[in-house]
């Protein structure tokens, strides 16, 4: 795998958790933020937490999103979906030719109702990313992975991670990234337009989480064992 | 549970499988069809298959959809989603006051692409059913259950079945119906608007099925054991 992996908008919920898991697996990470200073603070926090449990982890460095996009060999978009239109167009040149993995879920929390999806004109957050990064190879993954579980380093994150995409190389890289999380197994969910279903599954998981007070993940049944990852 | 259970449009893919499982669990079933004769033929087929493995199963009777709706104490809509608008309005009176479980998935198979969702103006097939049956108590369930696996009576259908709905009693009945399938456990997925996510998850499963040549189901991880159904 080409490294470092850039986490764009990596100071939010998913970014630090993925940074910990990727770095612990030996993959150097760049945490990008709107302000380099915030990226550095998040990286310092991740590094401190890793030091306690995985002193041999790879480096986690903080910077601004453009620098992360330029220096990263692979990029993972971890900005909340509403922030994507303000972020990606300015990074299109830096990300040209690279594999970019979309993780966004189009969800909002409606007062008295709970999690509901938001409509995305392109069909899914992943397709929107692909439209904004015409020179990149976009796959989608990690929608169902709980940020809280990622950060709990003492436990594996058991479950399947659905990977979708129209570019075989991008999907392959996404599979490799999923394999960096102990307990997680990638599943090929099909073309990029199927990212919509994987994204909305997370809205369902968030509804379940609210009811059962948990961080539910997903496992598919009846998959042929030899086809797993 | 009040019986019999009516399977509306029950001669298709899901209906016979559910009929076998429900009847084997001791619950009498009415298979409704556009033509009573087709309903009777499907019921005879199910009865013959059950006789071989479960001689003590409850009765499976075939009839037309209106008669099934009138005599059924609970109804499960098993007609393909495109057929729903032509079926339900004529049954609204017969189904008034009853629990009705929607199982439809808005999917079509696009040439060279595979399974893609169809837009439903009401948001989901379940919400469309609720709109067409204003006097009924609608829940949604069974979206992720494979018809092929249901019919393979030698095996349990392992997995979670997401149940959604706005009516607590309807959800409770749907939970009880799920418990009739050995290996299946109901999960509360939230309000009826969340049926959309559960329906679209099945489109994802169909995509996975096409890739892995299987009949995938779904299991949620991290659910508190005591909360399971």
Tell me what you see in this structure.
The structure is a homodimer of 229-residue chains. In chain A, the strands form 2 sheets. Chain A has an 8-stranded mixed β-sheet with strand order 3-2-1-4-5-8-9-10, with helices on both faces. In chain A, strands 6-7 form a two-stranded antiparallel ribbon. Chain A has helices spanning 14-24, 36-53, 65-71, 84-87, 92-95, 125-132, 147-151, 168-179, 195-212; strands spanning 5-8, 29-33, 60-64, 74-77, 99-102, 107-110, 114-117, 137-140, 159-165, 184-190, 217-221. In chain A, helix 1 links the parallel strand 1 (5-8) and strand 2. In chain A, helix 1 (14-24) crosses helix 2 (36-53). Chain A has 229 residues and is of the alpha/beta class. Strand 11 of chain A pairs antiparallel with strand 11 (217-221) of chain B, so a sheet runs across the interface.
* Helix content class of chain A: 25-40%
Give the oligomeric state of the chains in this entry, treating copies of one chain as homo and distinct chains as hetero.
homodimer
Biggest beta sheet attributes of chain A: 8 strands, mixed
**Number of helical stretches of at least 4 residues of chain A:** 9
Distance between the first and last residues' Cα of chain A:
16 Å
Task: List the secondary-structure elements of chain A in sequence, H or E.
Answer: EHEHEHEHHEEEHEHEHEHE
Which chains have the largest interface? A-B, 42 and 42 residues
> How large is the radius of gyration of chain A?
16 Å
Strand order of the largest sheet of chain A: 3-2-1-4-5-8-9-10
Overall spatial form of chain A = globular
The count of DSSP E runs of length 2 or more, i.e. the number of strands of chain A, is: 11
Low-confidence segments of chain A, given as residue ranges, are none
